[in-house]
Amino acid sequence: MKKWFAVIGDPIAQSKSPNMHHIWYEEAGEDAAYIPIHVKAEELEQAVRSLKLLGASGWNVTIPHKQSIIPFLDELDELAQKMGAVNTVVRLEDGRLKGYNTDGPGFVQSLEETIGTGHRQDPLLLIGAGGAARGIAFALQQAGYTSITVANRTAAKAEAIVQEMGEGKALSLEEAESTLDLYKVFIQTTPAGMSTGNLELPFSMKKFPAGAIAADIVYNPLMTPFLLAAEEKGAAIVNGLGMFVHQGAIAYQYWLGEYPNTNGMIARLTEQLG
Ligand code: ATR
């Protein structure tokens, strides 16, 4: 039987995942399909049952279902368990459903594709403490990053992440702002700079050091206000597109066993978005 996959969310029409996965199927000669399905919050349980019944081999989960899908799964990967959020479901051979989270690992993969693995001991500042930041914090820790500081407008949320990690430091955004020069690697995870939202940076870059590394998880626009300001100070830049492509690539690998061509995909999407 032809393998098929899906992405479920609300809204879903804007998702770039179907196009990305179809290009990979074509490149690999995989006879598979990947379908966007609009699922509202109150329809989630029914949707999971239907996907199972209709034989989906796996699916991605996006906003607003990443947490609420967990009770409908049979098993969770360790990182997904720690994060309390799932973005990838795999139907195992015995039909049981296992949840993974590839967002954080996708970010780390993208970061290290640009900066290599030689910065794991460098002081790192993670800005923001929402769902995306939590995933990235745990994935960085799992990858061996040893000096993580989390800064957030609501400092208590940064504190909660640090508590769960069992190491690291938490700061308010103001505290971080006045000590930016202590860090080497910066990861911006707040929605500030998204093309649909606010184009203002939520903190001052005055103390941003020379020769740093600046990563953002937003990819539309490719150059966020944070990345533009960091570039002006000579930083190496990692935009959010790599995270999107690698989270999809890791899911693809869980489903089909191979790691697809991420460089070609990043180049193609950069051209579309640029
Ligand atoms: P996601 O799941 O994408 O990470 P989220 O859970 O809504 O989204 O988290 C958004 C993060 O961006 C939070 O850390 C939020 O700060 P608060 O915890 O104080 O709410 C941060 N954020 C959003 N808008 C911001 C702004 N204008 N200035 C500073 N931080 C902002």
UniProtKB/TrEMBL annotation:
<feature type="binding site">
    <location>
        <position position="87"/>
    </location>
    <ligand>
        <name>shikimate</name>
    </ligand>
</feature>
<feature type="domain" description="Quinate/shikimate 5-dehydrogenase/glutamyl-tRNA reductase">
    <location>
        <begin position="119"/>
        <end position="191"/>
    </location>
</feature>
<feature type="active site" description="Proton acceptor">
    <location>
        <position position="66"/>
    </location>
</feature>
<comment type="similarity">
    <text>Belongs to the shikimate dehydrogenase family.</text>
</comment>
<feature type="binding site">
    <location>
        <begin position="152"/>
        <end position="157"/>
    </location>
    <ligand>
        <name>NADP(+)</name>
    </ligand>
</feature>
<comment type="pathway">
    <text>Metabolic intermediate biosynthesis; chorismate biosynthesis; chorismate from D-erythrose 4-phosphate and phosphoenolpyruvate: step 4/7.</text>
</comment>
<dbReference type="InterPro" id="IPR036291">
    <property type="entry name" value="NAD(P)-bd_dom_sf"/>
</dbReference>
<dbReference type="GO" id="GO:0008652">
    <property type="term" value="P:amino acid biosynthetic process"/>
</dbReference>
<feature type="binding site">
    <location>
        <position position="219"/>
    </location>
    <ligand>
        <name>shikimate</name>
    </ligand>
</feature>
<dbReference type="GO" id="GO:0009423">
    <property type="term" value="P:chorismate biosynthetic process"/>
</dbReference>
<dbReference type="InterPro" id="IPR011342">
    <property type="entry name" value="Shikimate_DH"/>
</dbReference>
<feature type="binding site">
    <location>
        <position position="240"/>
    </location>
    <ligand>
        <name>NADP(+)</name>
    </ligand>
</feature>
<dbReference type="Pfam" id="PF18317">
    <property type="entry name" value="SDH_C"/>
</dbReference>
<keyword id="KW-0560">Oxidoreductase</keyword>
<feature type="domain" description="SDH C-terminal">
    <location>
        <begin position="240"/>
        <end position="269"/>
    </location>
</feature>
<dbReference type="GO" id="GO:0050661">
    <property type="term" value="F:NADP binding"/>
</dbReference>
<dbReference type="Pfam" id="PF08501">
    <property type="entry name" value="Shikimate_dh_N"/>
</dbReference>
<dbReference type="InterPro" id="IPR022893">
    <property type="entry name" value="Shikimate_DH_fam"/>
</dbReference>
<comment type="subunit">
    <text>Homodimer.</text>
</comment>
<comment type="function">
    <text>Involved in the biosynthesis of the chorismate, which leads to the biosynthesis of aromatic amino acids. Catalyzes the reversible NADPH linked reduction of 3-dehydroshikimate (DHSA) to yield shikimate (SA).</text>
</comment>
<keyword id="KW-0028">Amino-acid biosynthesis</keyword>
<dbReference type="GO" id="GO:0005829">
    <property type="term" value="C:cytosol"/>
</dbReference>
<keyword id="KW-0521">NADP</keyword>
<dbReference type="InterPro" id="IPR006151">
    <property type="entry name" value="Shikm_DH/Glu-tRNA_Rdtase"/>
</dbReference>
<feature type="binding site">
    <location>
        <position position="62"/>
    </location>
    <ligand>
        <name>shikimate</name>
    </ligand>
</feature>
<dbReference type="InterPro" id="IPR046346">
    <property type="entry name" value="Aminoacid_DH-like_N_sf"/>
</dbReference>
<dbReference type="Pfam" id="PF01488">
    <property type="entry name" value="Shikimate_DH"/>
</dbReference>
<feature type="binding site">
    <location>
        <position position="78"/>
    </location>
    <ligand>
        <name>NADP(+)</name>
    </ligand>
</feature>
<feature type="binding site">
    <location>
        <position position="103"/>
    </location>
    <ligand>
        <name>shikimate</name>
    </ligand>
</feature>
<keyword id="KW-0057">Aromatic amino acid biosynthesis</keyword>
<feature type="binding site">
    <location>
        <position position="247"/>
    </location>
    <ligand>
        <name>shikimate</name>
    </ligand>
</feature>
<dbReference type="GO" id="GO:0009073">
    <property type="term" value="P:aromatic amino acid family biosynthetic process"/>
</dbReference>
<feature type="binding site">
    <location>
        <begin position="128"/>
        <end position="132"/>
    </location>
    <ligand>
        <name>NADP(+)</name>
    </ligand>
</feature>
<dbReference type="GO" id="GO:0004764">
    <property type="term" value="F:shikimate 3-dehydrogenase (NADP+) activity"/>
</dbReference>
<feature type="binding site">
    <location>
        <position position="217"/>
    </location>
    <ligand>
        <name>NADP(+)</name>
    </ligand>
</feature>
<feature type="domain" description="Shikimate dehydrogenase substrate binding N-terminal">
    <location>
        <begin position="7"/>
        <end position="89"/>
    </location>
</feature>
<dbReference type="GO" id="GO:0019632">
    <property type="term" value="P:shikimate metabolic process"/>
</dbReference>
<dbReference type="InterPro" id="IPR013708">
    <property type="entry name" value="Shikimate_DH-bd_N"/>
</dbReference>
<protein>
    <recommendedName>
        <fullName>Shikimate dehydrogenase (NADP(+))</fullName>
        <ecNumber>1.1.1.25</ecNumber>
    </recommendedName>
</protein>
<dbReference type="InterPro" id="IPR041121">
    <property type="entry name" value="SDH_C"/>
</dbReference>
<feature type="binding site">
    <location>
        <begin position="15"/>
        <end position="17"/>
    </location>
    <ligand>
        <name>shikimate</name>
    </ligand>
</feature>
